[in-house]
Amino acid sequence: MHRSLLSTAIALAFATLPVQYATAAPKPAASQEATTQLPRGVIPSHYDIALTPDAARGRFDAKAVITLTVTKATDSVTLNAADLSFKEVTIAPAAGGAAQTAKTSIAADAQTASFAFDKPLAPGLYKLTLDYSGVIGTQAVGLFSLDYPGADGKQQRALYTQFENSDARRMIPSWDEPAYKATFTLDVTVPAGQMAVSNMPAAHTATLPDGRQKVSFAKSPKMSTYLLFLGVGDFERATAKEQGTELGVVTRRGAIDQAKFALDSSKDILREYNDYFGVRYPLPKLDNIAGPGRSQFFGAMENWGAIFTFEYALLFDPASSTQHDRQGIFSTAAHEMAHQWFGDLVTMRWWDDLWLNEGFASWMESRMTERLHPEWNTRLGTVGSRDGAMQRDSVATTHPVVQHIETVEQANQAFDEITYQKGEAVIHMLEAYVGENAWRSGVRSYMKAHAYGNTVSDDLWKQIEKAARKPVTAIAHDFTLQPGVPLIRVGEPVCRNGSTTVPLVQGEFSRDLPEKKPLAWRVPVIAQVAGNGKQASTLVAGGKGSIVLPGCGAVIVNAGQSGYYRTLYAPKEFAQLAQAFATLAPIDQLGLLSDSSALGLAGLQPASSALELVKATPVGADPQVWSRIGHVFEGLHWRYGDDKARRQRLDAFAIGRLAPVMAQTGWEARSGEAPAIANLREQLIDTLSELGDPTVIAEARRRYAAMDKDASAVPGPLRKTVLAVVAQHADAATWDGLHARARAETNPLLRDRLYTLLAIAEDKALAQRALDMALTDEPGLTNSAAMISAVAQRYPDMALDFALAHVEKINQRVDASSRSRYFARLAMGSSNPATIAKLQGYGQANLAPTSRGDVDAAIAAIQDRIKTNAARLPEIDAWLKQNGG
Fold first, then answer.
1. Label partner for 420 (CA 20 to 30 A): which of 55, 192, 660, 831?
2. Where are the strands (E) in 29-141, listed by range?
3. Is 20's pLDDT higher than 90?
4. pLDDT 10s digits, 297-309
5. Which residues participate in catalysis according to the annotation?
């Protein structure tokens, strides 16, 4: 699953925030018995589902015949079911015999249905037959509908499913847990002229007397319930062949050309994955289905053979898409296709090991993007991803990568920066430790040993250690079974006879408990002397170590940035690196900026340390270094809040550093320019707009005013950026004009973007208008929550107060998977102490004690921001005063 966040700025804001979970490290599994919330003794092996949806009524009728094995005598069967109504339920021996009719009881809170029988069931094979009906929702949970303007301008409705992590039970009564793998056959009755898509190809299609079509899909491989998919609508499909697999993209009618880049990319990715994993993709086809709208929970979902992706993450429209969009489409496809192996073919046994799915898919996504598109230089992006995990991981309310999950809501909340980004970073570090070839050999062995089965993390470590012949498991346990971020303190280097010895001490980087006794890690460390391409490595264990490097000079610890730890230099050594900053490799420049920003705000070194590096950065530095600097400036800008005088001093300094880079980059793309330049242009315009640069704001307004008469005024790659600047600084008349554009737009993708832009206005009265509009039907039910979140980026307290005043209406517009975290995340950018009590009250009134992780996260974030702003911003003020701010 690819997570869904509104924008880079929101993603960065969320990345700084912890989530509340128990921090005690779970022990490695000693038993092979899977966790379950259902009674043991009944095991499904096949589901035969016949479904008739009525999209107009928002209901469906269905019949399920489940083949199951009773392993010990019982007089009842209990399975998962949510919002389902049962008409008749019977069970009979699979070999034939009299059927028994069940007495049905529903436990709505537990999301289960139990079927009691007068005569106990002896051990054996049975068929459980269920006639039932259910609800078609309007948010991306279970079987749901999405409405959009069709190619002819008329309103269309399409149906899709979203079952991860525990929502197959909303369409199919089932053992809805990952370890209960089974095969599936699915029949669906659809209106004439509509297309139905599922995991497997259609095996048979029949036209019924009333003109409807009955589509029967081929039997699926053995898989978990959450991977089943169904889509129905007025679709188009384009296909390509690669190594015997039919690859497809499915879109709403009229949008198929915009999926060409995704289809072409899928061919390259599949070929690479077939080779890397050593196991060929096993299904006959692999579709990627685009859906309009959005979710607050996810952006794409890895259903086996039928990936679902929201349009904004799949379609490339030259009239409005950017280089950043192109890279995002590729990385999303690479992520979800990696899941076809890590997650679908081999599945974690229980949600405790979710990172086996998501961390590995994130790592493969990064690896594949770097391999197939080296011109994008995305390797540098791993530093920012790791930084997001470290921010969340450096407070007491974090959790281990392998975490204990007890409830559905806890599983929902596990899709976070620790699971995705820390998981990816730990894999990146371990691969660097054992070597690329040994790592790949271990992964291939893991795939072959566990195909169509379920695993825990130690199953992987066993195969990696066998291939690498190095003690990987102990290191992996240190980084996955306990929370937190190691801190490597770099001692004074000693140069003798042309080599440098560097003492290293391991502590812990903790933002809220700086005096705590540090946890212990075995930390793989790579280092080098600046300007010397020769690296050395060591394993810091027992809290201390040292490393000997060839050459003498300024020392870079974590050279290449593969390690998951913060690096703290003594003042003298940091000063040497700052002096040599312009000569460092871009990835190490990013690592040093990342560490100095975090350590400075935590009080472990001067808060101005990152600004010292910014001052030393030449205009010609790597575009991604300047992009990171833009984020540093924006982060400080937001910290000053409503303190305009102090914020303007920072903004003036920031504009002074960024304006020359913008002048060099220019508004117009140059022939043959690097993709990173296109991304930097977008970033600089956005950042300078936020900082209030009058030159950038005026130019965006000029281009917007000319846009309708002169198409060249706003080229496609600049369209979103220019509109965002105009929307941010809009007055009432301009806002009304943007609103008129949104209402008139017939392209669902562009329409969704315009409605979100209406919610980013600086003018507080216009922000309120956006909030009010979000609770109407006008923007579309899946856009409402996104609009409120966009307002919260600038006015978190205002957005939270609005949401708390309309809890019931908000819940109707947020997918159920996100409800326990949505309200809390609105407040995550707040610096208002009063907001803490509001969040506590919301949690107590609306959430079970086990479902308040994100509420606790938001409270911790507010407390941290208040403390850090009071302690560190005066240091920034003093530095700016001395350096011309």
1. 831
2. 42-54, 59-70, 74-80, 84-93, 100-101, 103-107, 112-121, 124-135
3. no
4. 899 999 999 999 9
5. 336
